[in-house]
Amino acid sequence: MKVGFIGLGIMGRAMSARLIGGGHEVYLHSHKPAPKELTDKGGRDCRSCREVASHAEVIFTMVPDTRDVEDVLFGESGVAQGLTPGRIFVDMSSISPIATKDLARRIEQLGCEYLDAPVSGGDVGAREGTLTIMVGGSETAFARVKPLFELMGRNVTLVGANGDGQTAKVANQIIVALTIEAVGEALLFASKAGADPAKVRQALMGGFASSRILEVHGERMITRNFEPGGRIELHQKDLNNALTGARSLQISLPNTAKCQQLFNACIAHGGSAWDHSAMVRALEDLANHEVGSDKRQKGTA
Amino acid sequence: MKIAFIGLGIMGRPMAGHLLAGGHELYLHDLRPVPQDLQEKGGHVCRSNQEAAAQGEVVITMVPDTPDVEAAIFGAEGVAEGLAPGKIVVDMSSISPIATKDFARRINQLGCEYLDAPVSGGEVGAKQATLTIMVGGSEKTFARIKPLFDLMGKNITLVGANGDGQTAKVANQIIVALTIEAVGEALLFASKAGADPAKVRQALMGGFASSRILEVHGERMIKRTFDPGFRIELHQKDLNLALSGARALKMSLPNTATCQELFNACAAHGGSAWDHSAMVRALEDLANHEIASREQKKGAA
Questions:
Q1: B75 cis-preceded (ω within 30 degrees of 0)
Q2: How far apart are CA A194 and CA A192, in angstroms?
C-alpha cells in the first residue's frame, strides 16, 4: 500500500521504519530531511505534507501537539491541499480530544476519513512494534488501517467515534500520573517511618496496591533511576490536555491538577527531562526526606 | 500449639477457625460471646484477655483500632497481666505504626516478643486463607509464627522491625485509595467527554495504566456496584493512620489528604458503608455527571 508518514522524531522514525519493513511504499516528510536509515530502506522523502498526501492512500502523522497537527493538515502546503476523496488521515500524536473532533469534521468535508490513534509505550514500544494504540473513528476506516496498526503495535482497540481515541489516551495519562504520585506518597511514608521501601514495595506486589507503576516506577524511585523513559515535559502536555479538557467539559479533576503542579515543581528544579517517576522528588522536597536515603547512608557507612 | 485469639469479628472469626482446623488449641475471647461454630470445633472460651494470655504460648489480637489493641493488651484484665516471659504477642489488627513501636517495647520489657502483622484481602481473604500478611519484628520470632501465618494467608513478608508491618499496611492503603481516585478521574473524564468508559477501561488494560484497581474497582464504577467489599469507613480509618502519621513524621501527603476529604464527602451523603470504589461518587457530584449514565439510559430505554 502507498502510505504517508509525517513527523519523523524518535517515535515517528521507528514507526515508519516498521511500515517500510512491512513491505509498504512509504512517503516521508518532516521539518528536517528524512533520516538516511529510512531512505536507504526505500522510504521516499517528500518536500511537503501536500506532496505526501497526493501520493498516499493512508497518511499518518506523529507530531508533538495539537497546533502541530493543525499545521500539518491545514497549514501552507498542508495535507488538506493534497487530499483526494477516499483517503484516510490517521493522527497518532497525543493531542486534544476536543480539537480532534473538529479536525475530523473538516477532513470528512473533503470526502476523506479521519482516525485518531494515539499510542502509549514510548520509544521502546515504537521500535519493537509493541505500542498500545487507542483508536477513534468509523469501523470501516479502522478495518482498512488495522493491518498497518498491527505492524506498529500490539494492543489495538477501537474505543469509539472520532476523539474517543484521544480521550482514552488522556484517561491513560491521568491514571499513570496519579498512580506515580500514589506510589510516591506511599514509599515516602514508608521510608520516613523507618521501613525499607524496597521491602515494602515487595510486600505490596500481588495485593490490591499492585500495578505496573508500583513495579516499574516504584523501583525507579528506590534505585534513584530518573533517566527517561517518559519525560516530565511530555507528561505535562498530556495533563494539560486533561485539565483544559476538564475546564471546557466543566468537571473537576482535583488530583490531576495537583500532579501537574508537582511536575511544575520538578521543572523549577531543572527536571523537564527527568523521567516522570521523578514526581516523587517534589514530594521529597516537601518532606525534606528522600526515599531510601537512610538505607543508602547505612550502605556507605 | 496453644494459641490465645482475641477479637472474633468478621476477620478474626474465620482466621481463628483456620488455626483450629490446623490442629491448634485455641483460647478465645471477645467483648461479645464467642461464636458457637468456634466452640463446636474445640475452641476454649475464656472470661478475659488475661485468662486467654495465661493459657496461650502465642497471643493473637484482631481488633478494630489502636485504642482497642491498647485496651486488649494493657487494659484491666488485659493480655499483659496474663503473659509470662517467652510468650509472643502477634497483633494482626491495622493500627498506628508509631503506637505499635511503643506497644512492642512495653511487651519486650515483660520478656516477651511482639510481631505486628496486619493483613489485606478482607473478609474473602480471611475465609479463604489467602490474606496478604505484612510483618514487623525479629527474624527469629517470625520463623516461629510463620506456620501459623501460613494457615491464614498466602503472601507473607517480613518487612522489617516492629512497626514496619503496620507501615507497609498504611502504604498499601495509601496506594489503593489514590489509585481508586485516579481511575475515578480518568473514567469520569472519558465519560463526560462522550467516550464509553467500559471501552476506555478495556483499551487501558495491559498498558502502564493497568492495575488491580482499574480491573476490579474500575468495573465497579462502570457497573455501579457499590455494595461492600471494603467499606469507606474502614478505609477512612487507614487514611487517618496515614495522615496522623504524616503529621507526626512531619511530611506532606497531599493526595492522601484529598482522598480522605472525598471519602468525607461520601460519608456526608450516607456512604460510610459503601464500597471504597464509590469515592468516584464524590467526583461525580463535583462534575454533576455520572460515569456511564449515557449507557444506562440507553439500556433503560
A1: no
A2: 5
A192 is catalytic: no
Q: How far apart are the first and last CA of chain B?
A: 62
- Condensed to tens digits (0 to 9), the pLDDT of residues A57-105 reads 999 999 999 999 999 999 999 999 999 999 999 999 999 999 999 999 9
Q: How far apart are CA B260 and CA B112, in angstroms?
A: 37
The grid coordinates listed for B21 are 482446623
pLDDT tens sequence across B96-119: 999 999 999 999 999 999 999 999
> Is residue B233's pLDDT more than 60?
yes
Give the position of cell 485496651: B71
Q: Which of A169, A192, A237, A295 is catalytic?
A: A169
Residue-level pLDDT at B123: 86
Q: What's the grid cell of residue B96?
A: 498506628
Angle between helices B197-204 and B212-223 (to 10 degrees): 170
Query: Cα–Cα distance between A67 and A120 in angstroms, integer?
Result: 20
Nearest-5° Cα angle at B261, B257 to B264: 145
Interface probe, candidates A116, A119, A201, A255, chain B, greatest B C-beta count within 10 A? A255
The answer to whether the CB atoms of B181 and A195 lie below 8 A apart is no
Indicate yes or no: CB of A206 within 8 angstroms of CB of B170.
Answer: no
Model's pTM, two decimal places? 0.91
Which of B175, B193, B203 is the closest to A157 by Cβ?
B203
How far apart CA A232 and CA A125 sit, in angstroms, is: 18
Average pLDDT over residues A253-257: 97
- Which three cell numbers, joined as nine digits, stand for B257? 489528604
